[in-house]
Each structure stands twice: as C-alpha cells, then as structure tokens.
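sry for the spam today, last one i promise. struct tokens for design, 224 residues
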C-alpha cells in the first residue's frame, strides 16, 4: 500500500483529504505542523508527501529544504494558498515535484499524486520481474520460470513492500508497520521468518540471496 504523509494544519481539510485518499487505497499519516512533518518523514518510509506551505513551527519551504538536504528523495507535492509565481518557483527549486494552489478540487490532487508517483516509480507496475520471477500485482500472483509460486497473503504483502522501496533499507519495525499494521501484536521475529520463507520461493540460492538482502543491524533491502 502506498504510504502518504499529509501535512496540513487545517483540521477539517486534513480530515477530508485523509478520508478521500484512504478511499483511493492509500495509507495516510497526518502531521499538523512542520516539526512533526520533518520528524515523521525522517523516521518512517513514505512514498509521497503532500505538504502545505503555511504551517506552524516550521513552514513547508523549510521542511522541504530539510528533507532534501537529508537525502530523502520521495516526491513532494506542495499545497499553497499563495498564487505568486515566485512562491511556486521557490518550492520547485527547493526540491518539490509539483504544487497545487488552494482552493482545489480533491480530484485534481488525486490526479497529481498519481502522476507524480508514476514519474517517480513509486507506483507499482502491473507486472514486475526480477531474475526468473514475475510478480503480477493486479492478479496477486507470483510466477517463477512461468510456474505459479504459492505465496501466503503476508508473504506477498512483504514482497510488495520491499519491491515498492527497492534499493532502500527497511527496518523490521518499518516492515511490521507496512505489512502487519501499527496495532499488530506480531514481533519482529515474524519478519525474519517470512523473509526466510520468501527466499526459499524466489531465490535460486536462499542461503546466498541475490534479491532479498540482509543489512546487518539495520533491516532488509530488495535489490533488482
């Protein structure tokens, strides 16, 4: 599930956008000020940030600048009530990928989100291949050398989470959050067990994995 950080201090607007984006199938985390937004973005993996410019404690421009300087490359769409071209140019120069001027139709924001995710590669394709493995996200199926591979629901969700953020190290806590959810009582040992099972099903040499990489002391990474 695509994770979006929505940063908006207007409570009614934030709640409306959160509900709208969840109906579109996104997982949404809301921050109400710039400091909270920076902290969440630096601590957790998000696929996209919707960032209001006028925020308490730290404005959206400063948040955008801070995240880009820290090396985070997830797409950022800025929301601004300002119409001056200089403000839009500033946001883009600081590393924003797009902007939407208030007031806006939620359908416009949804369209911008989908377009930015497509450009960034964060939106999963219908089919994704690595080695002799093909993952069909639309059919929730995995095939290896053309033959079906029986993955459990959680194994498929775990593989999807790793592929979505391929090349990035994900901690066990991040994977637990992504795959099992915040309220799950599952321990991080479940991540290790599911990774081991996945390796047996998609790796040629599970004991020497090529794709599902252990990063000692940090978590796991998917390399294609």
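last one done:
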């Amino acid at each position: 599930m695509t994770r979006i950080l929505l940063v908006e201090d207007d409570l009614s607007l934030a709640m409306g956008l959160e509900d709208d984006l969840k109906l579109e199938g996104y997982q949404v985390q809301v921050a109400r000020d710039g400091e909270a937004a920076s902290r969440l973005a630096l601590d957790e993996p998000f696929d996209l940030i919707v960032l209001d410019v006028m925020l308490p404690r730290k404005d959206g421009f400063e948040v955008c600048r801070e995240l880009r300087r820290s090396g985070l490359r997830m797409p950022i769409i800025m929301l601004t009530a300002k119409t001056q071209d200089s403000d839009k140019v500033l946001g883009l120069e600081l590393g924003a990928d797009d902007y939407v001027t208030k007031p806006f139709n939620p359908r416009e924001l949804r369209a911008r989100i989908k377009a930015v995710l497509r450009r960034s590669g964060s939106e999963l394709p219908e089919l994704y291949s690595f080695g002799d493995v093909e993952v069909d996200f639309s059919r929730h199926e995995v095939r290896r050398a053309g033959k079906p591979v029986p993955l459990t629901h959680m194994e498929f969700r775990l593989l999807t989470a790793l592929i979505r953020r391929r090349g990035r190290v994900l901690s066990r806590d991040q994977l637990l959050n992504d795959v099992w959810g915040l309220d799950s009582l599952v321990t991080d040992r479940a991540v290790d067990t599911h990774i081991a099972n996945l390796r047996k099903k998609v790796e040629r040499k599970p004991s020497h994995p090529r794709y599902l990489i252990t990063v000692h002391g940090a978590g796991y990474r998917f390399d294609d």
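Helices lie at 11-23, 34-43, 60-69, 85-93, 106-120, 153-164, 172-180, 189-202. ok im logging off now
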